[in-house]
Amino acid sequence: MTRALEVARTALAAADGDAEVVVQAEASGLARFASSEVHQPTLIDNLVVTLRLVRDGRVGVASINRVDADGLAELARRAAEAAASAPVDPDFPGFAEPTEAPSVDGYDAATAELGPDAQARFAAEAIDAADVPVYGFFTSALSEVAIASSTGLEAEQQMTDATTLVVAADNGCSGYAEATSWRAGAIDPAAVAREASEKAARTNGAKEIEPNSYAAVLEPYAFADLLQYFSYDSLGALGLLEERGYFAGRLGQRVFDERITILDDSLDPRGLPKAFDFEGSPKQRVELVTDGVARGVVWDRTTAKRAGNGTATTGHALPPGFSDFGPLPSALAVAPGDAKSTAELVERVGDGLYITRLHYLGVVQPREGVITGMTRDGTFRIRDGKIAEPLVNLRFTVSFPELLSDVHGLTREPALICASNFYGERYPFGTLVPALGTKRFNITGVGSAPGI
Amino acid sequence: MRDLCATAVDTAVGAGAEYADARAVVRRSQQVSTKNGRVEQLIDVESEGIGVRVLVAGAWGFACDRRLSADGAREAALRACAFAKAAGGRSKRALAPVEAQHGTYRTELDRDPFSVSLADKVALCLRADEALDGADIIVRQAAVRALREHKLLVSSEGTDVEQETIECGGGIDCAASGDGLFQLRSYPSATVGATEQGGWEFVEQLGLEREAPRVAEQASALLRADPCPAKVTTAVLDSDQAALQVHESVGHPTELDRVYGTEASYAGTSFLKPDDLGSLRYGSEHMNITADSTTPGGLGTFAYDDEGVPAGRQPIVEAGLLTGFLTSRETAARIGAGEGGSMRADGWNRMPLVRMTNLHLDPGEGSFDDLLADVDDGIYMETNKSWSIDDKRLNFQFGTQIAWEIKGGKLGRMLRDATYTGITPEFWGKLDAVAGRDAWRMAGITNCGKGQPGQGAHVSHGAAPARFRDVQVGVKA
User: How far is A48 from chain B (nearest CA, A)?
Assistant: First the structure.
């Protein structure tokens, strides 16, 4: 039994009545470096208990990280006060009944045991492998999630994750690479740094281009970022029910090129696997878009009850403190295509742009999936089917559905892109996507040259 | 908690640290939100622990422990030293000298927001939520929040300070839908409402219930409004959007850690260079920006930052000229100016970073109507909706929830989906008027992200409506 489940049981026993306890534990280290030197090494050790209590249909939530008897008693008192302060919630679906969660990968003992010496050593491997100054981090963690409720449900999972992220940058040049896995042994920090460094070396002498609509190849880093932002409004049930998402009124319709299939699949061992969500419901593989047709969104118990008509949770509830966001995807995946490499996608595009990575995305119009942002750390012109001169950072404003409506193809091999910036409690998740060739990428402005 | 901090510092020094500081923090927050007449969120959160930062042989280390106990303090100190030794230092690090500080600070307030019952908070939200009902409205939301942070900071240089800050706020949002359009409207600020440091009196004076019908009517009217045209014109920004413009295009680029590249792997760098201090023209003569960690009500108000540097007021841009950076003790020593004062950490389990405190666009003269009077043809934009800016803080594109055409010095037809774009120093160079003190408002931002692992910061920006000439508005996808 994990420490998290042990605490969950104790907290549940301290609560009176219908209750659900979620425990998140984290032991992590992050060796952050800049100018090829570790400057912000951070070790975090925390355990947070969240209690959701129901009294006569009234729901209150409290959270605390003191897990002695006094702390858990205070937690129960505050949750009870919150519940007593609420009106009856007609949408409360009740707590999940005990079910068997799927067996998933996602835990690696060697990764769990990494300490500050190893984390600093992996950071040094990245630093030493680059030809230009590097900025980034190596991080690894052991995280635990446990849920216990008065229905008898108990669920627990240990997860590990490791990421190396490198921006290689100097005057007038910058490149980017990252690698994420639940097994640190699958990550080669030096290789990541070399990829970023080699990319940076090709960005010297960046030129401007005229704003226009271009064909483009998006590396998985860029494609994953756009997909993640699109998902906030359009791939969760709340965006659908509140008519703010692109899929509102479009389910069953052809919305993208028929070569586009999008899933949310927390069970895929190539990702960062999860067995259950924060209501204890088993994670399900959800088809969101199949062959270009909008098939569905992800659900939790509350939105499923609100929708009615037999709608059921898909196992995508967020932690109780984030429930106002509704359910959201946590393991987006795009089915690969037939291109052997990004070079083949570049050849198919012929004339256009090559985009490594994006920066600071913002949703301009959620209903139409319009997103703006900047390119960064490796933007190039494509000419005659080959990567040509480097370009300055470019502002884009694109309709994500338009971008996917007519594509040149996707690569055969997807890459796992870390989708967490490690705010709050650690909960590793990522996006598994190939590179994309699109016929429409709308450039609306030019920015500065790459580099530090 | 003071003894624990001292224990941590002593342990770190005993383990070889040439400098150490320890922060013990207890943070409690309450969040209540309703949506369409239903309680969406009703949560009470407490988090406590101790964070220890050390400098060992020129290398930083940070570790933390959730246990406020002697064991927790000692273990955090030893782990911080171990990480610093493992990371190793490749360059010499100096800290700007600061006298050891001793003192306390507590937010001034009339009514502690935690003395207001959760039931009263729920009732306020439900009343405001109901008052948002109207034609075409499909989503009504109201929220209030409260936060209290009690922290002690002890350093190996003798600093020993204790502070308690209290903030609270609230807001309303609604969404209208029809004919394939979806439009948002918020008050008093977008999605997260308004937050200030102070007592519940701040929430009460917002008048959420009173303002709700106007907000709902505007959301509905936006469904029938014309889209913002694409053209180069005069743009007048309301104080809320002007505050965001300050945050993104002045606040972040003047953080000296970004200038030195230490945030390059996440939030980005800056178009500014250290040598630009005192010589770079940031904007027009109407542009005056002040960092002030003493502003009453500001979310960046304190007596000491998280390095124990006393609060103060510092010009950043004077009559368009760059005259200051936001600094830590380390970056201040590196540039040879100031002593720091902008180091802030998100709770006990994150390392302090250079963050904004309260960064204001100083008021000019005249009223909002005076700003409009000098515009033959232009667009007035109100309440932020979308934001994006590049990693050097140069190329930005922002959108607002609502806009109006300005014709002959008066507001005309309503416009939807308004956006504008620009390059930071060029844009600020086009600033030709800022309204006066009477129109100056402070906006609290509670979702400013930075750092790896990520940290949120609460900062405030005062601004009055501001007028910019020759701005590109109406960017199309």
Answer: 8
| Test mutation, B35, B182, B394, B448, chain A, max A CBs within 10 A | B182
Concatenated DSSP letters of B67-92: --SHHHHHHHHHHHHHHHHHH--SS-
Query: Nearest by CB to B62, which of A35, A43, A424?
Result: A43
Residue A49 CA to its chain's centroid (Å): 23
Question: Which of B87, B350, B394 has the CB atom closest to A120's CB atom?
Answer: B87
Whether A421 and B346 have beta carbons less than 8 Å apart is answered as no
Tell me the ipTM for this assembly.
0.96
Name the residue facing A42 among B62, B122, B390 (closest C-beta): B62
Helix (H) / strand (E) element for B257: namely: helix B256-259
Q: Which residue of B has its CA nearest to A196?
A: B265
Contacts of B27 (CB under 8 A, 6+ apart): B46, B47, B48, B147, B148, B149, B150, B347, B348
Adjacency order of strands within the sheet including B321-322:
B321-322, B313-318, B289-292, B359-361
- Residue A117, classified by CB atoms within 10 Å of its CB into exposed (0-12), middle (13-18) or buried (19+), is middle
- Look at chain A and count its residues: 452
- Determine how many CB atoms are found less than 10 A away from the CB of residue A394: 26
Q: Which of residues 393-432 of B touch A (CB under 8 A)?
A: 394-395, 397, 399, 417, 419, 421, 423
Q: Does B391 touch chain A (CB under 8 A)?
A: yes
Q: Does A80 touch chain B (CB under 8 A)?
A: no
Q: CA neighbours within 13 Å on the CB side: how many for A380?
A: 27
CA A24 to chain B, closest CA, distance in angstroms equals: 13
Helices (H), B356-459: 368-373, 424-429
Q: Would you give per-residue pLDDT tens digits along chain A (452 residues)?
A: 889 999 999 999 999 889 999 999 999 999 999 999 999 999 999 999 999 999 999 999 999 999 999 999 999 999 999 999 999 998 899 999 999 999 999 999 999 999 999 999 999 999 999 989 999 999 999 999 999 999 999 999 999 999 999 999 999 999 999 999 999 999 999 999 999 999 999 999 999 999 999 999 999 999 999 999 999 999 999 999 999 999 999 999 999 999 999 999 999 999 999 999 999 999 999 999 999 999 999 999 999 999 999 999 999 999 988 988 999 999 999 999 999 999 999 999 999 999 999 999 999 999 999 999 999 999 999 999 999 999 999 999 999 999 999 999 999 999 999 999 999 999 999 999 999 999 999 999 999 999 98
- Count residue pairs from A and B with Cβ separation < 8 A: 278
Q: By three-state DSSP, how is residue A85 classified?
A: helix
H-assigned helices in A109-165: 109-112, 116-129
First-to-last alpha carbon distance for chain B, in angstroms, is 54
Q: Which two tokens stand for residue A321?
A: 């403190």
